[in-house]
Amino acid sequence: MKASRILLIAAAVAMSVPAIALAQSKTSAKSAQVKRGEYMTMVSGCHDCHTPLKMGANGPEPDMSRMLSGHPQDMQLPPAPGPTGPWNAHVAATLTAWAGPWGVSYTANLTPDPETGVLRDFTEQQFIQTMRTGKHQGQGRQILPPMPWPMIGKMTDQDLKAIFAYLRQIPPVKNKVPDPIIATQ
Amino acid sequence: MPVLSEMRTRRIGRWTSIIGVALAAIALLGSAAAARRPLSRSAPELLQETGLYADFGRHQVDPRHLEFAPQYPLWSDGAAKKRWISLPARAAIDGSNPDVWAFPAGTRFWKEFSFGGRRIETRFMERQEDGTWLYAAYEWNEDQSEARLVSERGKPKAFDLGGGRSHFIPSVNDCKSCHQGHPAQVLGFGALQLSSARDPNAIHGEPMPAPGVDLQYLVDNKLLKRLPRAVLENPPVIHAATPAERTALGYLHGNCGHCHNDAGSLRNLGFSLRHVQGPARRDAERTVATAVGQPVKGRFPGQAPDAKLRVEPGQPERSVLLQRMGSRNPLVQMPPVGTVMIDDEAIRLVTQWIRDLEAPVRSTEATGKTAQTKGEDP
Fold this sequence. Notes:
The structure holds 2 protein chains of 2 kinds. Chain A is α+β, with helices and mostly antiparallel strands. Chain A contains 5 helices and 6 strands, in the order ααβββββαααβ. Chain B has helices at 2-35, 172-179, 215-220, 229-233, 243-256, 286-291, 320-325, 344-356, 366-372; strands at 53-55, 60-61, 66-68, 80-86, 93-94, 108-115, 118-127, 133-140, 147-149, 155-162, 165-169, 224-225. In chain B, helix 5 packs across helix 8 (344-356). The chains are: A alpha+beta, B alpha+beta.
């Protein structure tokens, strides 16, 4: 083998090693971000309302087959009772339907389902703005109670980006959440 | 030696006087800076502390501030509005990008809202050193003797509009949701709104207050610099087939374009109702290119099954844009904030525009854009 050929091969190897290392480092950073997002989603209580509860042997438990897919579309509910006295809010047993002075709200499908996922057209920036302002896509209608956006909106950009990255890659669940009902004044 | 000593003394004396002059200049500049109002950082408690008035007791606005009126004003449930801008001394707006003017730190804007001849609120914006804008709103008391800072969360029921509706003083988030929808963040003070070629048919149009702040005025008074010569020589006008279309598209620019545009965070919708001057300008207005004949990807609560296009030529009742303008259901209405009453005059204007549109879609750009369009209109 000629010396020049050896040199060429050596140069190619030398150039490809950093490229592979860079790609691996990017993948690893992404994976760390998703893991952080999974953790933040868990400890911030997102599952409490966005993953429906089902009755298990030991009482209510999250139905992980519908993880973060919001209020089940097939769940039929009678009209919500009106606010009475200090008991001015009511919640369905799944914790996915809430009634109060604002009307009735159903928790959103946060999975990346291309047809029914509420975040399907959100950019990362819009997701962050939504959490900061409490407005749909950061600029639209007001998000209804009990979504705790004032608390979540205090998270760092890094944490919100991590949550968004995590939600982008969880299993999609096709579930068309009903439209909210606005209370008539 | 005595000569050397004299030379040294003279040199020292010269340097002393140079330093003295420099110190005096610095002191003068310092006192001038001290006299100028410092940037707010946080909003003052009282409106008069923002510097709007020369004599607050008489409601006499500082004559150094410029009153202006955009040609396509934002609908605010029929409120009468007055607006002022104040630029720092010797500072100017950079108009090199005619679609996104850059305002110097210290720029202040005020907008006063009145119903039935009574001031209800005055909104205040101030550009900070770091480039961000401060947003605040002040509520006037009953006898108009005081205007006090409103909570960041806004103030409901600030004025009874009748029919169970009332004026809401916006929260800081409300302010940001509109103003931050476009990189300029200033909504009513731009090239089209201050064009010397004003639309005589603009609805809710207001007479231009003295001294007549338009592009020419700003350039002549060195308050606007680096504006492309072409924009001054050919004052911005909506590109339209008819005067009625010009007025309709102007209304959409003034009322919708601050969120629905190609430069802000909702650009992924591919839905722009904003007139542009710069390189993004093509033959057709962006509204025609991105709304007329263009499908709505998402849906809003209660959307009729046959309402599938943002604007369906000849079919106002099936055009989603008009349906959302004509709703005040909080989940549906457009704009989503700042109004609780439908703008009937605008509905008539836009209805007629859509009725007059001829199928098929006139925009050659439309097809290409459709493929890229994604997203539910918020």
